[in-house]
Amino acid sequence: MVFLSALGIMGGTFDPVHIGHLLAAEWVRSEFNMDKVVFIPAASPPHKDEGDMTPIEHRYRMVELAIQDNPYFEISPVEKERKGKSYTVDTIAYFRERYPDKDLYFIMGTDSLLSFPTWKKPELLVTLCSFVVVSRPGYVIPASFWEKEGLLPLLQPKLYILEMPGMDISSSEIRERIKQGKSVKYLLPREVEEYIYKHSLYRRSYDV
Ligand SMILES: Nc1ncnc2c1ncn2[C@@H]1O[C@H](COP(=O)(O)OP(=O)(O)OP(=O)(O)O)[C@@H](O)[C@H]1O
Ligand SMILES: O=C(O)c1ccc[n+]([C@@H]2O[C@H](COP(=O)([O-])O)[C@@H](O)[C@H]2O)c1
């Protein structure tokens, strides 16, 4: 039996999931020799306006379709099923309890790291897992970020910064392109693209 102990957790709004997300998860998995990466679509992302957000059922299904060909990728409904805001500290506490012996790594892009000090209970969160931050075109960590007192000394020992091939892709750009009738081919998996057209996502209000 192979002993595998590192688990990656990739949270996101995934509206829709795209190849930037998938590459980040696979890059980190491979670099850290993780046994799997669990994708967690957030039902109610704390920092995002839910007004025009696609219903979680669609976003969740698109992630299922996107990861189906990668045996190392899984999806969890933990935030889909939880009421209220999808706070990462609650999600990681759940995984910590479920996998007491595993090293947990929360995977995120540089933009997420920059907002990290404003997340719910960041001082508790840093005690529950480590963090892998992947590079993202357009986002740099300013020197002043490292000068913040209080949280940073706690975060830094648990933080890994990883360069990955730059993917200047965002869900918002994909949504905008679809709205304008432009191609999104190769920006996301074909199955996800087909799902979007089949359900007329990003063009009108949605029925689940
Ligand atoms: N192109 C990318 N390169 C690296 N990391 C990314 C990329 N796109 C998203 N991420 C990271 O994936 C996580 C989930 O991102 P999210 O679902 O909000 O996608 P997004 O493309 O940033 O969406 P939106 O454009 O709607 O804000 C975040 O931690 C984010 O930093
Ligand atoms: O817990 C928080 O306070 C918190 C605040 C902002 C973002 N997050 C998480 O960070 C991940 C990326 O967020 P987003 O908004 O870029 O999709 C996702 O899993 C969010 O739930 C978490």
From TrEMBL:
It comes from the Bacteria. Pathway: Cofactor biosynthesis; NAD(+) biosynthesis; deamido-NAD(+) from nicotinate D-ribonucleotide: step 1/1. It holds the Pfam family CTP_transf_like. GO terms for molecular function: ATP binding; nicotinate-nucleotide adenylyltransferase activity. Its EC number is 2.7.7.18. Residues 9-177 form the Cytidyltransferase-like domain. GO terms for biological process: NAD+ biosynthetic process. Keywords: ATP-binding, NAD, Nucleotide-binding, Nucleotidyltransferase, Pyridine nucleotide biosynthesis, Transferase. InterPro entries: Cyt_trans-like, NadD/NMNAT, Rossmann-like_a/b/a_fold. The keyword Ribonucleoprotein does not apply. It catalyses: nicotinate beta-D-ribonucleotide + ATP + H(+) = deamido-NAD(+) + diphosphate. Belongs to the NadD family. HAMAP family: NaMN_adenylyltr (MF_00244). This is Probable nicotinate-nucleotide adenylyltransferase. It comes from Thermosyntropha lipolytica DSM 11003. The lineage of its organism: Bacteria, Bacillati, Bacillota, Clostridia, Eubacteriales.
